[in-house]
Write a structure and sequence with these properties.
Blueprint lengths: L25 E3 L5 E3 L7 E3 L2 E3 L2 H6 L9 H13 L3 E4 L19 E3 L6 E3 L2 H10 L17 H9 L5 H4 L9 E5 L2 H13 L3 E5 L7 E5 L4 E6 L8 H10 L6 E5 L10 H11 L6 E7 L31 H11 L8 E5 L10
Parallel strand pairs: 8-11, 8-12, 12-13, 13-14
Antiparallel strand pairs: 1-2, 3-4, 5-9, 6-7, 9-10, 10-11
Helix pairs in contact: 6-9, 7-8
Length: 353
Amino acid sequence: GNSNTRGIRWGRAAHIGTAGSGASAWLLAGDSSHRRLQDRPKFCWVGGHTDTSDQRHQAHWQGVQEPYAAAGLTARVLALYGPHAFRVRDLHNTSSVLHEVREDFGYSMVDRDSGNRRFYTWESVAKDVQDGGHRFCCLMKDIWGCMGPKYVDKLKMTPPFDAAAYGLQTLPRGTRVFVEGNSYFAEVISSIACHSDAQVWKIGDTISNSMLVVLPDRDVLIWLVSNDHMTGNAASIALYLEKAMFNPTMLVLGATLQRWHSMTMRERFHVYRGLFPETKHKYFIMNYNPLPINCRAKGKGFIDDCALGYGHQCLPGPMDRVAEKFVQMFRGEWSVPDVWEEVQPIEEDPLSP
């Protein structure tokens, strides 16, 4: 019955309800508490005054000076997703995992210390991550997780993600990043979110990797759309961005799965370019797998964890160096050449096209 979500359909975004209309907004304080605001008409700041007309609201959405910054933007995005959005309360607890281990995925191994057989569970993964001196991330999927003595040994040799140097709190105040890509990009954003202890909302359909990552104290927000039937392709996603009045400072377009995305990279780029024509927006075109190849997650069909090979890498692990590089990219300190055609990495360099 909420007017914000009445028009949402699974797998489509053709009839999105207007964010902020007829619903109480949520102001998300820096201490993770919530304060309900009074119902109020939708509005935007144009030339120092408030305008409530729909036409003017839509015409000036790109230049909005948001009264509540990241908190107001978060409320609008969550309103669009309606019941398909929820807060992840504890990023490092196995009780908060977003995706259970699939029944046909499980495997077991003999524990090196006890001699007992261990089965692949989130508790087993978390134990080995802790034994290796790292922190478990509940945003991962089973094909990103690893366990076993070889993995523990690799973790002990791998410095953890440097949150002090590369956490989201190091981004310029007001940073807005939109990322669209496959699960390889989702794994990178998950690493950044977990190690930054950010506020995270799972959004979109249940099997997707889409999420909203927010650091209210720094007014920082990352919106990830990944393998999401609900939002569809770039043309549909653009409607979400427009309704949320999302005005990014940076866009990262990564490779996508064809069964979720029928548009080419250039078609996707032109959709977003038409939505955000200002030259101040920085685009990164990364039509490849950005992960390294030195600690592959087992996945289906593989025998050993943390082996050399392409595909998803163990999280946490050496792939955290890529997550740190992405934060440098968000800060404007590091860049990659645009890659339009889909390719696989061919060198040890984890971000080589």
